[in-house]
Write a structure and sequence with these properties.
It is flat, with a radius of gyration of 16 Å. The longest helix has 23 residues. The chain has one domain. A four-stranded antiparallel beta sheet has the order 1-2-3-4. It is an alpha+beta fold.
Length: about 80
């Protein structure tokens, strides 16, 4: 793998309507060195940033909890 040394930004084909600002706009995802990920709506300046290790930890915990709920529901 190549180490990330500069910001990479991509527009994803997803929409998330949260408030008036989002209004069905596409989402821009930016990965920044050393370990940040940023989300924003296209055409806006408001950024939502998280540390990638913390985001990975949260995702793993959410997945484990969902699996536990599924097992409990199955019983």
């Amino acid at each position: 793998m190549t180490l990330l040394t500069k910001r990479v930004a991509r527009e994803i084909d997803a929409r998330l309507d949260v408030d008036k600002m989002s209004r069905g706009r596409p989402i821009i995802v930016e990965i920044e060195a050393p370990d940040l990920i940023t989300f924003r709506w296209k055409g806006t300046r408001r950024r939502y940033t998280a540390a990638i290790p913390r985001l990975m930890q949260w995702t793993i915990m959410a997945t484990v909890e969902a699996e536990k709920r599924a097992r409990r529901t199955k019983r």
